[in-house]
Design brief:
Blueprint: E1 6-23, E2 26-43, H1 44-65, H2 71-100, E3 105-109, E4 112-116, E5 120-122, E6 136-139, E7 144-149, H3 152-156, H4 161-164, E8 172-173, E9 176-180, H5 185-193, E10 199-203, H6 253-263, E11 269-273, H7 276-289, E12 316-325, E13 328-330, E14 336-339, E15 350-354, E16 363-364, E17 367-368, E18 375-383, H8 398-402, E19 406-410, E20 426-430, E21 438-440, E22 442-446
Parallel strand pairs: 18-21
Antiparallel strand pairs: 1-2, 3-4, 5-6, 6-7, 7-10, 8-9, 9-18, 10-22, 11-22, 12-13, 12-14, 12-15, 16-17, 18-19, 19-20
């Protein structure tokens, strides 16, 4: 016996009838509306199949809209690229204004005043035009810097591990004596204590390789990844502070210091290698104004091996893929440019060296890559010998620093763990040696 199951729907229609009446020779028309109803049914199986088809179509539509290649995703990517292109145009315009600026002036922003030195101009881009966000300026070559306001007391304030995980400028490692001679200390501190200055500028990006350094500059897919302890020590090249360029690595501490000081030098501005005071003061500013950033675990806002937040596959930039299997490094033999492939996989697999400012995830207070990507040389030095830690000691003399065998780098690198190598952490390396994961950053002090 065959049984059919039906699902019935009540469907009604309105039928209009017209009647005519003859009243004394006058014909009258009368319209009458009646409603008829009848049953219409489909089988339950047909209904189920219909629902399944509709769900499949809905799923296809959602996938078309979302996903890595979806319409909405592409629209967002296009929006971001358009915004970036617009900002680049504004930076170029600011660079033209910088070339015409011949003297320092005070620039009013919505929450204060910022000194703009000769040869510089503010970008005036939304989100870069207030002290709470980080005021960005450029020079005539398009190098970008961020203003760090502070008092001399804040600048010289010592950090300690008990406070928040950052060490002070006087610190000890493995029983050795360490310190920061802060070269040209008086000139530097004049920039901080001056009533009409009251701060300094920090490179918005890690120091980048200039195009003129053709023997190690890379900006194309398949460009060779050159390894050398000498190629980046040439005394004629000037670093850049720009987005999307190859980070300047394979440079020892002394040459990083020299390169930083070559970058900008005029009557009102002198560039230096970043020192411990500037690094720690910048950390305080981030802590004050950028509440989204964790200074004790910078995994989510740095290019680290254990970053699982950043969508590396959505990045389009210059990069090099290094691998590490059981502690043995296989350094990349070439750069790639385009959509990033080979996101970090944690311990023992991939490490990604990225160009400067590759992701908005890596930005804090308008400064990129303080956490992760490259470790960065500072002016701190010392020796792991004999001296026992004490509660306080004066700064090391310059002569002590020059003879030191080890230097300090900060911020963590792409080869490191972001939960351990935090933005305020220290690393130690022989001052005369270079590495593919150690770069540097430039700061500006005003006179």
């Amino acid at each position: 016996m065959k049984v059919n199951v039906y699902v019935y729907f009540k469907i009604g229609i309105i039928v209009e009838k017209e009647k005519t009446k003859d009243i004394g020779g006058l014909v009258m028309k009368e319209k009458k509306k009646t409603k008829r109803a009848f049953n219409k049914g489909i089988t339950l199986i047909a209904l189920v199949i219909t629902i399944i088809v509709l769900l499949i179509l809905a799923g296809v539509s959602i996938a078309t809209l979302t996903g890595d290649n979806g319409i909405l995703t592409k629209a967002q990517t296009t929006k971001e690229e358009t915004k970036k292109a617009s900002e680049e145009e504004q930076i170029q315009l600011a660079a033209m204004n910088a070339a015409m600026n011949t003297e320092r002036y005070n620039y009013k922003v919505e929450d204060g005043t910022v000194p703009i030195p000769a040869g510089f101009a503010p970008t005036q881009i939304e989100g870069q035009n207030s002290i709470k966000d980080g005021v960005v300026v450029v020079d005539e070559k398009g190098n970008e810097f961020v203003w760090i306001p502070c008092t001399l007391e804040e600048f010289n304030k010592q950090r300690n591990n008990e406070e928040n995980g950052w060490s002070s400028k006087q610190w000890y490692y493995n029983g050795g004596t360490w310190g920061d001679s802060q070269p040209n200390k008086d000139e530097i501190q004049n920039s901080i204590k001056s009533e009409d200055i009251g701060g300094f500028y920090i490179g918005r990006y890690e120091a980048g390789v200039p195009k003129e350094a053709t023997e190690f500059y890379a900006n194309s897919d398949g460009a060779p990844y050159k390894q050398s302890t000498e190629k980046n020590a040439d005394n004629s090249y000037i670093p850049v502070s720009k987005r999307g360029v190859q980070a300047w690595t394979y440079i020892d501490q002394a040459h990083a210091k020299d390169a930083a000081e070559r970058m900008i030098s005029n009557n009102g501005v002198q560039s230096y290698l970043i020192d411990s005071h500037a690094w720690d003061t910048t950390c305080r500013i981030i802590k004050k104004y950028d509440k989204t950033k964790n200074l004790l675990d910078s995994t989510e806002w740095g290019n680290y091996k254990d970053n699982t937040t950043t969508k590396y596959e959505n990045l389009n930039t210059l990069y090099a893929l290094h691998t590490n299997d059981n502690g043995k490094w296989d350094i990349a033999d070439h750069y790639s440019k385009g959509q990033v492939k080979g996101a970090p996989k944690g311990v023992g697999i991939n490490r990604l060296e990225l160009s400067t400012g590759a992701s908005e995830d890596f930005k804090a207070y308008n400064i990129y890559d303080l956490a992760g990507n490259m470790w960065e040389w500072t002016t701190e030095n010392g020796n792991n010998i004999g001296n026992k830690p004490s509660e306080a000691m004066p700064d090391l003399k310059t002569s002590d620093i020059e003879g030191a065998k080890n230097g300090v780098f900060r911020g963590g690198g792409f080869d490191a763990d972001g939960g351990y190598s935090v933005v305020g952490s220290h690393g130690v390396h022989a001052t005369s040696e270079c590495d593919f994961c150690i770069g540097f950053r430039v700061v500006l002090y005003l006179q």
